[in-house]
Amino acid sequence: MTIFKRNMLTLCVIALVFSVIFVISVLVFMNSLYYEINTQGLKNTAKSLMTAIGEERVKNIFTSNHDENYDIDLPVTADGEYRLTLIDASGFVLWDSHVKDGLVNHIDRAEIIAALGGIAESARRDSITTRMKQLYYALPVFDNNNDPIGVFRLSISIPEFGLRISSIILPFIIFAIVMVIALFWTIYAFSHSLSASIGRLVKITQAGASLLSGPEAGEPVAQEFVSLEKAIRAMTHELNFRLEQAKAEGHRLEAILNGMTEALFAMNSALMLHLVNPKARELFALGNRDITSMSLLEATRSTELEETAKKALSSDAALETELTFRTGGAELYFQVFAAPLSGAAGGVVLVLQNVTRLVKLERVRKDFVANVSHELRTPIQLIKGFSETLLDTIDEKEKDNKKQIIHFIEIIHKNAGTMENLTNDLLILADLENNGGNGRDLEEMNVAELIHEAVSSVEPQAKRKQTEIIVDCPENLTASLYGSFIIQALINLIDNGIKYSPNKSKLWISARRKDGELLFEVRDKGIGIPAEQLERIFERFYRVDRARSREAGGTGLGLSIVRHIAMLHNGKVEAESRAGEGSTFRIRIPDSNYSEIE
Fold first, then answer.
1. Beta bridge pairs of residue 443
2. Which of 383-392, 452-461, 482-491 has the lowest mean pLDDT?
3. Are 105 and 94 in contact (CB under 8 A)?
4. DSSP state of 295
């Protein structure tokens, strides 16, 4: 059943019920009004008649002795419309204008009881005496002491309400039927108009774009529906446009996911998967399996990936880590990016980038550096040793005669020293990159002793330039450190401070606990570093002033070694400098690696 038919049927039933209720209500009201009007007229007539006869005369009738010859003459006859009855206090009828014989005692009549109680009362019933529908109105008659001594009752015969309106009932019924038909027609027209307007809107929403350019409603339609139709047309057009955009975006996203060389997993907050790209299916041999009912652990069998996803969810921040997987007997290295999804549903996205080739290349590079450094070390030491021997074996006379040879040997000796420093730095760097602490454990060491050992190692250079080194460190400060690497880092920083500071300058070294960190600080008053180059000074072979650096004997690896040593301790190194005003280098190591003796 359509909405039109349902509305039509519902409204017709409502109209019919309303019409019946209305007609019945009108009839009930008119019936009540009919008897009320007649009762009020009878009441007024009774009072007028009482006044016309005279209250004293009526009182005398009740107080006189009555015998059979007593004649009561009152201006009401049996031919008249009204019937007058006089009833004494015992209910006995003294006189009745219409009935002379066979009168019964009226003491049980409701209006008589009320009148004998001193209250005027009306009643309506079929008269037992006259066998007619009667309206009664009873007035109490009082004696001189104001006590009721009788009842003055006036009545009138009236026809039933139905008989009274029988002459107009047919026109009334015809009028009611016409009204109902008119009401039904109005309901039909309204429902049809409403149904047509709504039906058109439904067709527009169902057909979508095909009706967007169609004609507007030709039949009369309410302005509200016209406005609504225009709004729905505009909304449908916008939805179709956005749907096409969403489809295009979906195709683009699918193309991007299919073309990604990284594996991607998208999941909800319970780590149940809802999106996996082809690379991830290939990597974890998922094939065409339905992943919507699988968890991340079921799909990857990796507790490390699961923990990474949980960390991203709990911290509500993106994180990056490195993981190793073994598949088919080979090790695969991945850079894993985890990012939580915002919104009510939540979730997390994992992107796995295969860096196995880069890791292997880096390993080859490190091995190459280490091997080359080892191979160069022996010939460089031989060259340096023989050049020193040649310089020592040439006597004073030969030196005077062979100054050119001495100059060449000195050049060989100097460059052999530079190459030796370079290979030493490369070996240290390779050691740091390959196996960190070289298999050793962190040791609890006195920090002040490490600083003093580093200062002792550079003391000859400091004396040559008359540089004063000032140490500030609590003697009781200890930490869990790789001692030899810390000494190497401090030597590199102190050596740089001496090299790039003028003669007779000062250099400050300090170590202290600050904000939960072990802080090493080396500060000088040297030439400084331009601000635009501060970010690059920790790169390998990077020199601020290449000519001056080579002249000072630098390898370009010292600060890179310092950075790797700081990273080995889970810390970091930073620099603060201004050109011409000196530099400050700081090594920060987390407090989990040290303590202070009380």
1. 481
2. 383-392
3. no
4. B
Q: What is the pLDDT of residues 159-182, one digit of tens each?
A: 776 666 666 777 777 887 888 788
> Which residue ranges make up each domain of the chain?
1-53+159-257, 69-156, 260-354, 360-423, 441-596
Contact criterion met (CB below 8 Å) for 488 and 565: yes
Amino acid residing at 184: F
- Could you read off the pLDDT of 293-317 as tens digits, one per residue? 889 888 888 888 899 999 988 888 8
> In DSSP terms, which residues pair with 83 in a beta bridge?
155
The 10s digit of each residue's pLDDT in 222-272 is 566 667 767 777 787 788 888 888 888 878 877 777 778 788 888 888 888
Q: CATH topology of 69-156 equal to that of 441-596? A: no
Handedness of CA 425, 427, 433, 439 (dihedral sign): negative
Q: At residue 594, does pLDDT exceed 50?
A: no
Q: Judge residue 241's burial from the number of C-beta atoms within 10 Å of its C-beta, 0-12 exposed, 13-18 middle, 19 or more buried.
A: exposed
Describe the strand order of the beta sheet including 82-88 as a list of residue ranges.
Answer: 93-96, 82-88, 148-157, 133-142, 121-126
SS3 state at 443: strand
158 φ, ψ to 5°? Answer: -130, 145
- Please give the single-letter amino acid code of residue 517: E
Give the three-state DSSP class for 480.
strand
CATH of domain 441-596: 3.30.565.10
Query: What six digits make up the tokens of 378?
Result: 């022996």
Strand order in the sheet with 273-276: 273-276, 263-267, 348-354, 330-340, 319-327
Cβ(121)–Cβ(139) below 8 Å: no
Residue 412, number of CB atoms within 10 A of its CB: 17
Predicted confidence at residue 209, as pLDDT, reads: 45
Q: 67-90 pLDDT, tens per residue?
A: 555 567 777 776 778 888 888 888
Among residues 387, 446, 392, the alpha carbon closest in space to that of 413 is found at 387
pLDDT reading at 514 higher than 60: yes
* pLDDT band (50, 70, 90) for residue 543: low
Residue 483 confidence class, pLDDT cut points 50, 70, 90: confident
CB 579 within 8 A of CB 465: no
* Range from 103-107, 187-191, 537-541 that averages highest in pLDDT: 103-107
The strand pairing partners of 586, in sequence order, are 521, 574
Residue 281, judged by CB atoms within 10 A of its CB (0-12, 13-18, 19+), counts as middle
For residues 99-108, average pLDDT: 81
Predicted confidence at residue 526, as pLDDT, reads 87
> 260-354, what's its fold?
Beta-Lactamase (3.30.450)
The three-state secondary structure class of 311 is helix
Architecture of domain 69-156 in this structure: 2-Layer Sandwich (3.30)
Across-strand partners of 509? 471, 522
Contact 490, 586 (CB under 8 A): no
User: How far apart, in whole angstroms, are the C-alpha atoms of residue 27 and residue 40?
Assistant: 20
Q: Is the dihedral of CA 304, 306, 311, 312 positive or negative?
A: positive
